[in-house]
Amino acid sequence: MRQAVEAQVLNPCCELGEHGLRQILSDVIQEVQWSVNQDIDGAEILHSLLNASWLQSLLKVYECLQRYLRGSPAPALDYASGLSLQLLADIRALPGCSEEAKELYSLLRKPNLQALLSAHDTVAQKDYEPVLPPMPDKLPDDEEATRIICLVKNKQPLGATIKRNEITGEIFIARVIHGGLADRSGLLHAGDRVVEVNGFPVDGLEPEQVIQVVQARSQGTIMFKVIPITERPVHNQTMLYVRALVDYSPQQDPAIPCADAGVSFRKGDVLEIVDQTDALWWQAKKLPSSSACAGLVPSSNLLRRKQREVWWSQPYHPQAGIQTLSTVEEEEDLIALDEKCVEADEEAFESEELREGEDDGCSKLEDIYLAGFRRSLRLCRRRSHSTTQPSCHTRCPSSCSNSLGSPYEEVVRYQRHPQDAHRLIALLGPPGVGVNELRRRLIELNPNLFLGAVPHTTRAPKGYEESGREYYFISRETFGNMVYNNRFLDYGEYRGNLYGTSIESVRDVLLSGKICVMDIDPNAIHAVRSHELKAYIIYVKPPSQDRLKETRQDSYITTNYYINRPFKEEDFQEMEEAARKIESHYWAFFDQVIVNDRLQDSCVQLLTAVRKAQDEPQWVPASWIRPTTT
Ligand SMILES: Nc1ncnc2c1ncn2[C@@H]1O[C@H](COP(=O)(O)OP(=O)(O)OP(=O)(O)O)[C@@H](O)[C@H]1O
């Protein structure tokens, strides 16, 4: 018997029979049993190994595969789709058909089944397209290994770019676009040398001329003769999602290798980076994307370099391929705006000067105080909107300019766990647009769920005020210490008193299980975008000037110099101007934009946005989820 086993091992191709292997195995077990009886070393281990059920199963699988290999699969017929059509006609012709026949009829009519049968027939008839040209009879011995590649082109672009070696004039595939036609074929690779296209030798041609040869045939088979690259680099691509912090238009970028293959994006767009092989040009898809095909975007380094070039050479150039987040010219504009504001209100200011304390916008809803609506706090914020020397400071005043250095921000999909603290809801917009009106309405809707953070101030409390309710009343020294220890999200001075909102105040609301709703100065965006607060930022945008005039007829604005006066034409213009500046600097950081046209609609949109922020997955900075030590 042992000889029989050896024969099988030496000649693995010989027939094992249906139960061949298992038979051998049981013979081996018997043999081992015999060895055990003879007290031979290691035999027991071998015995248990051979008895193992997993080995038995594996051998069973092996036998099945052997059986399958012996009988090569062949189609029973190669006209299944024709037969199904005949069947449909026959069933239709039946005078009264059974339920089974009806079911069969409806099954056979399904387009997916018909497509399947048609695919079956194509394979069965070996009716493959395209028919490759015959191999030349005589290939010169010294010719390098060439490959003939036929791609069937539809209206889609080929999905590959080429480059020319300026010394030799040879044409190479520069890159293959992820998910494009060439990529899906798996036949063309970056680095392959293109020798011929549709029979035309391309050596020495300009890349544009080669493209013309390719494009001469917009549809049908394109034949490439290529010398494949010998060593294809191995890429370990990792999934990367980024939020664009700048605008980019490939059509306006003369440096892009192929503008048609470029992906344009705006600040705030989320890009899926599918290939970072090239140091200069990444491949990406703009989300949400229904296309399998990626396109070219500048790499982070390249985009940063472009940003710097634009920054230094063209402070503001709307035609430039890339627009920076902020420009020097715009900063100067901001000063001009403030002067205009003083001019406009000087006369009336005499008679109707603001008096801090007379009406501090105390907001009380039955027995619930709505903290953070103080007029002085808002005025101190407003001043920072309109000057380059902000009276309101943020915990990280330089963070905005830091973000200018990085054109992409890595993001990940995040959904708050129901047991986690709520995300901070931060509202912002140009002065007077209605941020506080919306915030107030939201809190009033459900004060048990929504709450503002209690701000700090150095001013003395008034008779009716309680520390921790309207404000935390603290000394200048304590306030200074808190500033020193970065405990304010934003703070500022108004009429000699300091005001600020601390991280602890927001934390208190969040820890109580409520949703903290805060209005913030744009400068505070970077402070609230933190691992702990995970702010969801809602930008309240003014509608058109006409709609502002129409909707704000009975509304009142509080300016630096007036409390609650009717809106004037110039208020709307200033609002629009301020909105333009906020948008050009900060658009990328807005999770939601609400155009505050009809108040009722805006309230509904706000409520929906707040629910989305808490309960639906959102793109958030990767650093919130994987905090770094820096
Ligand atoms: N959609 C709207 N339609 C009509 N009036 C509105 C609308 N939104 C807000 N208002 C009114 O506009 C005025 C200014 O609104 P609000 O005080 O909320 O502005 P704000 O954005 O908080 O600005 P600031 O903080 O600088 O005062 C208020 O009288 C408010 O009731």
What does this protein look like?
The protein has 630 residues and is of the alpha+beta class. The protein has 5 domains: 2-65, no CATH class; 80-124, no CATH class; 147-227, PDZ domain (Pdz3 Domain, Roll), CATH 2.30.42.10; 240-323, SH3 type barrels, CATH 2.30.30.40; 332-625, Rossmann fold, CATH 3.40.50. Helix content is 38%, strand content 19%. It has 21 helices and 28 strands. Helix 2 (20-37) runs antiparallel to helix 3, helix 2 (20-37) runs antiparallel to helix 4 and helix 5 (80-93) crosses helix 6. The longest helix is centred in the middle third of the chain and has 24 residues, at 328-351. The protein is extended. The two termini are 72 Å apart. Residues 1-14, 315-362, 387-392 and 394-404 have low confidence and may be disordered. The site of adenosine-5'-triphosphate (ATP) has 19 residues, from helix 12, helix 14, strand 25 and helix 20.
Summary keywords:
630 residues; Pdz3 Domain; six-stranded antiparallel β-sheet; 28 strands; 38% helix; binds adenosine-5'-triphosphate; MAGUK p55 scaffold protein 4b; GK/Ca_channel_bsu; L27_dom; SH3 domain; SH3_domain
Give the CATH level 1 class of the largest domain: Alpha Beta
Give the strand tally: 28
Largest sheet: 6 strands, antiparallel
Strand content: 15-25%
Radius of gyration: 36 Å
How would you classify the helix and strand content by structural class? Answer: alpha+beta
Going by CATH, what is the homologous superfamily of the largest domain?
P-loop containing nucleotide triphosphate hydrolases
CATH topology of the largest domain: Rossmann fold
- Number of domains as seen in the coordinates: 5
Compute the average pLDDT.
80
The rough form would be described as extended
Low-confidence stretches: 1-14, 315-362, 387-392, 394-404
CATH-scheme architecture of the largest domain: 3-Layer(aba) Sandwich
